[in-house]
Each structure stands twice: as C-alpha cells, then as structure tokens.
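Schema walk-through. Below, the input block comes first and the output block second. Nothing else is stored per chain. Lengths vary across the set, and this one has 543 residues.
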Amino acid sequence: MALASGTGGPTARVRAIAIDDSSNVYVGGDDDFVWRWTTGTGAWASLGGVTPTTATVTALAVRGNDLFVGGNFSGVGGATAQNIAKYNIVAGTWATLDPVLWTAGAVSCVAFNGSQQAYAVGTLPSKHVYAYVNGAWSSSVPSGAGANGFCKAAAVDRYGGRVYVAGSLTSVGGITANRVAVWNDFEPIHITDLGSFVGTGPNFAHGVNNNGVVVGECYGLFGGSFNYHAYDWTSPGPLRDRGSLGSGLNSWAAAINDSWQIVGGAADFGQTVGQLWTQTSLPEEFGMLINLPSGTSGEASAINKAGYIAGSGLNSVATRRAIYWVKDVWSAYTTINRTPIDLQTLGGIADTLASYAYGINGAGKIVGKSVTGPGGPFHAYRTSQIDPADPRGLTIISTDDLGTMSQNPSTDYSEAQAINDFDEVVGASMDGSTPAVTNAFVHRPSTGFTDLNALPGHNYSIAYAINNAGQVVGYSKSGTGSSDRAFLWQNGGLGMRNLNDLIAAGTGLELHSAEWINDAGRIVGWALGQDGQNRGFLLDPSK
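--- output ---
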C-alpha cells in the first residue's frame, strides 16, 4: 500500500527512512521537512523544517524516544544545528547536539552503540568518524587518524562489540582498508531484572515478541496460597498477572507472537491443559485447550505469527505425543478448534511411540523430538509446512528426521527446540567425539549440522531459540546445575559467548539460561540473584 492519505507528506526525493517501536515511519530528504507517518491514524505530519531551503536530510535513526536527524543543514525545527539534531518522539521537541567537532560537510549515517554512544559519518572534515559519547562529541573515540576517503555508512554489531564503516576509504587509522573497516568498541548490553509478584519470588522468563513484550511465570501469593502464575511484562513493568484456572493452581506462559497471543499451560484440578491468553483475557474467560482423547496432560510450547500452536500431551495410553492446534482457535473458540491434532512420530502411528513438539515457524513447520521406532532413540525432526487447504492434515513422517551429529545415529540422541523463518533449526545432539557429548547445534537445509560446542570448561550445551538473523541462545554447563551459563552464538567467527561477559559488572545477576531471542536481538531467560532466587531477565542491545 502507499503511505498517502489526505494532505502532507514528502514532496521531493526521500533520502532517509526510520521506524520507531510503535511502527510509525519517519522520512526526510530534499523538501526541507522531516515527516512522520502515524500508523494508527494513517496520516502524515511535519515535525519541522530544516534550513536553509537548499538543506537536505540524509540520515534518520531511532533510539528509544529520540529520532536522530542528520544531513546538510544549519538549523532544524527553528533551532540552530550543524548537520545533526534529535527530536523527542514523546515530548515533540527538538534539541541540538552542539557543539559539534566540525564546521562543514554533511552527516550521511547515524549508528548506535548502546544508549550512551552514537556514531556519525559522512562528508565530514578530516574524513573522520565522530562518536557522541555520554551527551558530548568525543575527540578520542574512535582513536587514530581519519580515513583517506569519506565514510558514508556505519553499522554496529552490539553483541560482537564491533563497529563497521564503509565508503570510498582505502585506509583508516593508519591501516589499509578496502572501502570497509571495522574496529572493536564493546559497550555492555543493558539488562533488566523483571521483578516479581511478591518479595523476590522465583521468576522464569521464556519468550519475548518483536514488540518487546515478555512472558513467563513467577511465584507469588494469590488468593491466600503461593503458586506460580503466568505473566506478561512491558517496559518499564511491573509484571502483569495473567491468572490461573482456580485458587491454588499454577499457570505458565511459554511463548508470545507479535499479535499478543500467548500460549502455555495451566493446572486444572488433576490434569494440565494447554492455555491461551489474548492481550486482555484471563484464563477463565479464554481459553482452555482440550487434551488428546482420554489424555490427562497437555501444554502449548510455541506459537507462530499466524496463530498456529505447537505443544505436547499425553494420549490414551499415557505416552507423550507432539500435537498442534489450528489458528482458527483464536477467532472461533469451538470444540473442534480447541482439540489438538496428533502429529504422530518418526516411527509411525503406534500409540506407544513418543514425540514432542517445541517450536513452529511462520510457514507452520514444526520441530521437536521423536523416537525413530520401538526401542529407538529420540531424533530431532522438522515437518513440512501446514497446508492452508488442509490445516489439520500435518503429520511427522520418516523423512522429517534430521539425524544426529554423531557417527551412531541408530543409538544416539538429538532434539530440536526452535526453527526460524529460514528453516534453520536449533537444539542439541550427541556429537561425533568418543565418548560422545551433547552439544548445541544449528541445522540448515543447505549445509546440515553445525556443532556450536560449549563454553570453555563445559561438556554440555543446548540451544533454545534462533531468530531470523541467525543469532542463537541457550545454556552451557559442566555437569552440575550451578555451572549453567546462558550463551549467545552468532555468525562471524565469534563463536559461543557467555552472556555474563556481555553485561556490566555489579548487576547482582548470574545469567544461567537464555530462553528466547527476538529479531531485534532482545534476549530473555532466567538468572540467579544474590539472594539465591531465580530472576527473569531481559537483555536489550538497543539500550
């Protein structure tokens, strides 16, 4: 669709675009104005003009409530500004970033390295990269001489601690560079303790959507008894209790999609059931899922953007089976829609064979683990996608078997925990060493398994989530519970990194498990506090 409604909007070439956390769109270019398209109203509004009339806007970037604006101008919004300024999205006010360290040129790109550091590049004097650190421009960061050609683009790998610049340069800081250069400049990742319902009760965070909404369960006092209740959390908090099916009963939230559809489980007087929440509903209002026929246990583990749900439940002979529910349950809360579909197993349909479903991607491909046959080991699997023409017809088949990383697939184990929209699967598998150990993996359709190994000194790891950028999270350990450490793995030769090394000292938290990572790189999981209690946490590289 075109962003055009009523009056307003750009009237000349657009050179820069940015989007805030509320999906509002900002553009600037050659028509002397910065414009905002408000998604909720579908209308354009001017945030103010740049001067002189020949001025251009060539860079826009959002950090928190601030829109940074760069280009070739001497004023913006009625205030004097030398090629760069910022606009507070909430207050609706402009502020300069003066005094700058240049008197001419233009800013072509702004990139952020956490909440206290930004980089500006462009056709600036000395062909330098300039850093805005703790509210002032720095003459020492980055160190070294400028480039021999203009830097026109910049990007920051927050978790890798790397800053990239690109342009016409062939040397920078006294070293040779082929139009692209990188230097190390790590800034600690911002961490939030998600709090608790009462005192410092245990908190476990399991999911975070692309809007930053976190879900999990936390211990607290509810109706005169202490139990775990599912929660959701939005910044700045606190936790919001999503209730249970009755007094003295537990509930838990496992996953959330971008439509604020939450899935998990709840105790229901002698059995457990899959559970749904919308942004506003409570369990007794909407919506308890149905277990397999004659089964006494079920729970939902994952949900995709369309609303399809994957999980596991006991069948009539008390064997755990992978199951899923159709997306129509959200719009038509009927018995048939609430009833799960048995995905069966890699070894066939026999009721005594076990399988589990842990993840589902946007296309409806489900992953988990299944026995390969009677007496056989569990193997990771990835199904084909759900067919919209036959949404209840999906089953696990033998060719869905991903195998293992070991040399003995007939006896050795693997499991899949999550899948992204590029069909990249993560989990854990016994490897090819003697004796075999279990390591986290990434499995890609084109290349198969990549062994992620474990943190130094550890002999076990498992990956729980992968985002669409290919970033993987999970935990690694050496054999004891207290040795668990949350990790991040990403491409680029950095390998597996202990998340405790990426946060500032003195937080009072020891990160034990990373449970999910969204497409913006936000990570949730649980940590151990100084009081010995489990604490849910959120890592946010944008802050």
